[in-house]
Model the fold of this input.
Amino acid sequence: MTKMAATRDGYGEALLELAANEKVVVLEADLGKSTKSLHFRKAHPERTVSCGIGEQNMLLVGAGLAASGYIPFASTFAIFTERAFEQMRNGIARPNLPVHVCGSHGGTHTGTDGSSAQSIEDLAIYRTLPNVIVMHPSDIVSTKLLTMQLADAGSPSYTRTARNKTPVLYEGRENDIKIGKGVVLLDGEDVAIIACGVMVSESLKAAEVLAKEGINATVVDMHTLKPLDGALVDRLANKCGAIVTAEDHNVIGGLGGAVAEHLTANKYAPLERVGVQDRFGESGQADEMLDVMKISSSYIAEAAMRAIARKA
Amino acid sequence: MRCTTIKSHLHRSILAGEAMVNIEELKELARKCRVHIVNMVHKAQAGHPGGSLSEIDLLVGLYKTTLRTRPNEPDWSDRDRFILSKGHASPGMYAILAEMGFITVEDLNSYRVLGGICQGHVDMKWCPGVDFSAGSLGMGLSFGMGSAIAGRLDGSERQVYVMLGDGEIQEGSVWEAAMAATHHELGNLNVILDRNRIQNDDFCEAQMRMFDIPAKWKAFGWNVKEIDGHNMDEVVQGMQFLSNSNDGPSILIAHTVKGHGVSFMADNPAFHGAAPNDDQYAQAMEELGEVVA
Done:
C-alpha cells in the first residue's frame, strides 16, 4: 500500500533540521499548529516570533530580520499570505531579501473549509514577482529537502504545501531533488505530463490509465515553477511533441501558464492545461474536490488524448 | 518569542557631554539641509518638499546627537538603524546623508534621475546609508521590528529608529506592528512621528480624523513623549528620551509644520508633492538665506 504523508509535515521537519543554523528564525501568525512550524517553536522558542494574526506585519518583520543577516521562515495558510502580497512585493522581493514564505493548505485539495481557504491563485501572483522562487512540492520528502535548500538560496521564496496527505514519492530518491530542476518520474514518448503538488500522483495514475490504452506518457514533477526548468520543457517538447500540465490551481498564471509562456517562445508543442477552470471551490473532501474541479487522474488522461490528437 | 526586557541600555547620548551640543550649529545644519531639499525638488521638478521640510530638524537631531553610524562604513553591521517609513520624504534624508558624509552633495543632483542613487523614494539597494526600501506607507515599523529582534538575537545594544508620517498611521498594518512590538517588549525600537497634520490630498483632519494620537500609542503600551519638532532644544531632548527609554518601545510625537521654513509651502497641502517654479524657488532660497547666482 502506498505510504501517505502531508507535505506540510515535510516543512515542519525541515525547520527542525535547519535549526542547526543559528541564523534561521521562524515566524508564525497563529497557525503554527497547522503549517507545522510548531515543532521548531517547541525546540527553539527564542528563535520563534509570534506575530499574532497579522500577516502583513509578519512578512516585514521577516524582511527586517533578513536585512540584518537572519534567514526567516514565515508560514501561514496560502490564502492568508495573499493579504500581504504588497509587503511581499515592496518589502521583500524588491530589495531581494531572503525571506521564505510558506503557504500551507493551498489548492482545492484543502477540502471542507471551503472556497475561502482554497487558494487557487497563490502560485500565479508570486510568480509575477522578480527575485522570488516559487515552489509547490508533491510529497513530504521533496518538501523537506527543498525547504532545507532554501536556507542557502539567497533570495526570497514562496512555497505552497498541502493540508492533506499525498503519496510519498521520493524515499530513496532524495538526490533527485534540487530547486529549479524538474524530476522525470516516468519516461514515455507519446505525451509529457508536467505536474506539481498533489497533481503529481494524480498524473502518475493517469499514466497508468493511458498505458492500458497503449500510450506511453512521461510524468514530470515540476516542483519549482520559478525559475522554470525550461531546458526540460524543451526536451519534452522535442521528445513527446505533446504536453499536458496539471495543477490544483487556476489554469490562469500557474504551472500551465508558466509552461505555455515557455513553449510560445521556444520549441512549440500542443499544450492542454488541467487545472481549476477559473472558478472558486466549495466545501468537500479532498478527493471529491479534485473531481468537482475536473482535475483528477481521469481528466488528466483525457487531456493527454486531446494533446496527442493535436500533434501536427 | 517572549524574552525578558532588554537590559538597561548604556547611557550613550551625546548629552553625556552636554556642553558639546551646540544648538546653533544644529539649526544651521538644518537650514543647509532645507536648501538641499528645495534645490533637489526644484531641479527634479517633482518630489515631496512638504514632508521633507517638516522632518528635517528631527533628522538633524537624530543623526547629529544619537544615531551610531559610520558614514565611511555604511554597512557596519552593529550600526543603529534608521528607517524612513515615509519614504517619499526622501529629499530630507538625502540632505542629511550628504551632510553626514554617506553621500556627496553632488549626489543630490541624482534625485529622481535615471540611474541616480537618490531614487524617488529611499531605497537600500541604491543609496549608502539607507536601511530600508520605502515608498509604500505602513511598512517601516514592521521592518523596524524585525531589525530590533535581530539586534536582540545578536546580543547587541544597537537601537532602531523608525520615522512615520502622521497620515501614514492610517494604514492598519502600522497597528499590527505597534501591538507586536509591545508584546515582544522591544525596548530597542523607537518611533519618531512627524505630526505635520497634512497628507497627500488635504489636511489629515479632513481625510481621516485620528483623534487622540498619543492616547492610542499609550493604549498600545508605548512610552510616549511629545515635542515641538522645530524647537531644536526639544528635538535633542526628544532623541535623548528615545535612546534612554528601553523598558519597551517608545515614540516621540513631534508636532511639526509641513513645509516649515518656506513661507508659501508652510502648512499648505499643495506642497505635499509639488515642486516650486523658478520664481517660487528664488523666493524660497531668499527665505532660507541663500544667494542664488
